[in-house]
UniProtKB/TrEMBL annotation:
Protein name: WD repeat protein, Prp8 binding protein
GO cellular component, one term: catalytic step 2 spliceosome
Gene3D superfamilies, sorted: YVTN repeat-like/Quinoprotein amine dehydrogenase
Keyword Repeat: yes
Length: 415
């Protein structure tokens, strides 16, 4: 039995431990600055509990919160006149162009927006998942404590439920309306590095988890035991569902990405190009392309449509499904499981997935154009490696988390 936890969802929500509201940089044509991250193994020891629970965050006095409001001002370029506040066109409903969220006591290992875009969940090595309201003052209205293990990967199954893979070899499924852990999945023999939820197709409602034990396991929200086990024999670091729910994209320590068919129970094809461990996988909004991030400091964009060319027209020596590569976000020596992500908001032309983002050891969040491969933004702010990133599904809002435990939530251009 999983002990019930105390809910803090009734009554007035608590404020975040610390929230900074910051104006955009005052210089003409300046880009919005924000950063992402995901860290894997290094975790400070903290008092643990055997059960999952929802706990309250300490409320700050109003005067302390107000004291944290910042207004950025600077002299006008080429002028000796006084400081001027730069007015920049806003592109989102955030209270300020950049919000700094503080509350975690260790690395931010993963980030996820709810399907409606109103909630941001952050998983940390401090063994908690914090829940933040995206709009208004970005209030931290609750925290899910997972007991002995730290959450390494999280995914919303709906706007009111979230699944977390943990270092104690288990998965938790939380009901966010009550704050209760409604299910705990046991079966892995190693750290769970990645989880993903299938929201459509034949696998609707199924959960996939990848572990250091060399397996990918498929679970149903309604059952405690796995319904499928894929054994590869080496640590698996990333897993992603295909659109139709019939296949899994799997990345691990062999540097390759295997596409496993759940109907034939065999590998359909393999994507090879990375020179080091694959750390994350993301599917484009139109489900036609797969983004992979690896410890070789590169990101690759792959075509995963049913029919692909037999030869790469750009470079015949490359894999025929390799569309483009992105450079400029160094992995560093820490060997962290950095997470890359696709933009999901619709542009003025109705397109989505026009940008990808990943953090790096250079303490910056890098954003690329998916059509050209060029860097569009190099966003500073974090004081350590940026591990996790997540895009809002409805606005050009990008979240990032770093090894220092800080989360940045900010807006970028909508194009």
């Amino acid at each position: 039995m999983i002990p019930k936890s105390t809910s803090v969802f009734s009554g007035r929500p608590e404020r975040a431990s610390e929230v900074h509201r910051t104006k955009l940089p005052p210089f003409p044509f300046a880009k919005v600055n924000l950063n992402p991250l995901f860290s894997h193994t290094t975790m400070s020891k903290r008092p643990g509990q055997d059960s999952a629970a929802l706990i309250k965050r300490q409320r700050l006095a109003d005067e302390e919160v107000n004291a944290q409001e910042l207004v950025v001002a600077a002299p006008e370029a080429g002028s000796n006149k006084g400081a001027l506040i730069q007015m920049v066109k806003r592109t989102s409903g955030l209270q300020a162009p950049i919000m700094c969220l503080r509350g975690h006591g260790a690395e931010v290992l993963d980030l996820a927006f709810s399907p409606d875009g109103d909630t941001l969940a952050s998983a940390s090595a401090d063994k908690t998942i914090l829940l933040w309201r995206v709009y208004g003052e970005c209030q931290n209205y609750g925290a899910l404590r997972l007991g002995k293990g730290a959450p390494t990967s999280i995914a919303f199954t709906s706007s009111s439920t979230i699944v977390a893979g943990c270092t104690d070899h288990t998965l938790f499924l939380f009901d966010l309306k009550t704050g209760e852990a409604v299910r705990r999945f046991r079966g892995h023999k190693g750290i769970v590095n990645s989880v993903d939820v299938q929201r459509g197709g034949l696998g609707r409602g199924l959960i996939a988890s990848a572990s250091d034990d060399g397996t990918v396991r498929v679970w149903s929200e309604e059952a405690k035991e796995e319904i499928e086990v894929v054994e590869l024999g080496y640590p698996i670091t990333a897993v992603k569902w295909s659109e139709d729910g019939q296949s899994l994209f799997i990345g691990g320590l062999d540097n390759d990405i295997h596409v496993f068919s759940l109907t034939s129970h065999a590998i359909s094809y393999t994507l090879r190009s990375h020179q080091d461990t694959v750390t994350s996988l993301a599917l484009s909004p139109n489900n036609s392309q797969l983004l992979s991030c690896a410890m070789d400091s590169t990101l690759h964009l792959w075509s995963v449509q049913p029919f692909a060319p037999t030869i790469n027209t750009t470079n015949p020596t490359l894999h025929p499904r390799l569309v483009r590569s992105f450079y400029g976000a160094p992995a560093g020596f820490e060997q962290l499981l950095r997470k890359a992500s696709f933009s999901r908001h619709p542009t003025s032309e109705g397109q989505s997935g026009t940008m990808v983002a990943a953090g790096g050891a250079d303490r910056a969040l890098t954003v690329w154009d998916t059509m050209t491969g060029e860097i569009r933004y190099k966003l500073p702010g974090h004081t350590g490696t940026v591990i996790s990133t997540a895009w809002s599904p409805k606005e050009p809002i990008l979240a990032s988390g770093g090894v220092e435990g800080v989360i940045y939530l900010g807006e970028v251009d909508a194009v």
